[in-house]
Write a structure and sequence with these properties.
Helix content: 40-55%
Largest sheet: 5 strands, antiparallel
CATH architecture of the largest domain: Roll
Radius of gyration: 29 Å
Strand content: 25-35%
CATH class of the largest domain: Mainly Beta
Oligomer: single chain
Order of helices and strands: HHHEEHHHHEEEEEHEHEEHEH
Number of domains: 4
Distance between the termini: 87 Å
Length: about 325
């Protein structure tokens, strides 16, 4: 092997081990390759120069105290190990994908961590991946979600075959898609129907679509009426659509903060010994499910139609006991 080949092999070997999280010393490398420490010093400088010209997120750090060289990640735009682990945990808890898809996602995410920490993150996630439970539909949704996202962005009408849980067969629908949301295990398409002119959109579970065709027909969405996913999410509960309404309720529970987190549009309009009175703008009747879940800690004050519905539901619940 020629001198240049020896040098190339040596530098590549050093960089490979550095990229895997190993710390190197001049003396250790000099002894290993049977060259002088000045030669190894030049090799380290070559690696440092390469990293600088390559504009990667890595840089070669020298620890003067321990006299070691190691690669560090210095760009804040890249994910850190703790961020990767946190995202993996959120993915697992979401139960958004079939097990095979989830395993691939977690593995790909883990591979973005520093090589020295990948095995540790994999060990942390191993048991959770083993105990992961698929949702009942077990459908891979990546392609369909991407297709729908493109239709939303380009404002193109879509034809879908949609099968609700208790339907025997799918039904065809022509829709104007305006948004995609994820909530409580499922992805949802928010869309306006073409056959009925409604002031509010309809919500469709993506996994219940058995077919989807994006047409060449475009629909208009004037800016002042533009649907905004973030604003819609603030006002929707349990993905139940309906008319926009303003509700008021008294809350006597231990955590008003939980109310504000659950209902982003909520504000405290009164506070006293009898509890806090909240006002919030919400879509549809999904809010009723949340209010009922708060039990004796909530009293609906308005609108009257919702207060009456709550009273009837509570009386029906009492009959069960």
């Amino acid at each position: 092997m020629s001198l240049s080949q020896n040098q190339t092999y040596r530098v590549l070997s050093m960089y490979d081990r550095l990229s895997k999280g190993h710390a190197l010393t001049k003396k250790g490398e000099a002894d290993s390759f049977q060259v002088g420490e000045k030669t190894i010093q030049r090799d380290f400088e070559s690696i440092r120069a390469f990293l600088e010209t390559a504009k990667t997120n890595e840089y070669l750090e020298y620890d003067r105290k321990d006299k070691i060289y190691k690669l560090e990640v210095g760009d804040e735009h890249y994910l850190r190990n703790e961020e990767i682990f946190t995202l993996a945990k959120i993915l697992i808890e979401s139960r958004a994908f079939p097990k095979a898809d989830m395993d691939r996602l977690i593995d790909k995410l883990t591979n973005l961590a520093q090589p020295a920490n990948q095995d540790f993150i994999k060990k942390l996630m191993l048991n959770e991946k083993h105990l992961y439970v698929d949702l009942q539909h077990k459908k891979s949704l990546f392609s369909l979600l991407w297709e729908l996202a493109q239709a939303v962005h380009t404002k193109r009408v879509i034809n879908v075959c949609y099968k609700r849980e208790h339907d025997q067969e799918s039904s065809e629908r022509t829709l104007k898609p305006v948004g995609l949301l994820f909530s409580d295990y499922y992805f949802y398409l928010i869309a306006y129907q073409t056959k009925h002119e409604l002031e509010f959109p309809t919500i469709y579970r993506v996994d219940r679509m058995t077919a989807c065709h994006v047409t060449d027909e475009h629909f208009q969405a004037p800016y002042h009426n533009r649907f905004q996913e973030g604003e819609f999410r603030k006002r929707i509960q349990f993905m139940h659509a309906g008319e926009l309404m303003t509700i008021r309720f008294r809350f006597t529970g231990p955590s008003p903060q939980a109310v504000l987190d659950r209902l982003p549009t909520a504000r405290i309009i009164e506070e006293g010994e009898s509890g806090m009175v909240f006002e919030a703008e919400v879509f549809g009747r999904g809010i009723k499910m949340w209010l009922l879940s708060q039990g004796e800690y909530v009293e609906v004050l308005g609108p009257q139609v919702l207060r009456d519905e709550m009273r009837r539901s509570v009386m029906d619940m009492v009959k069960n006991y």
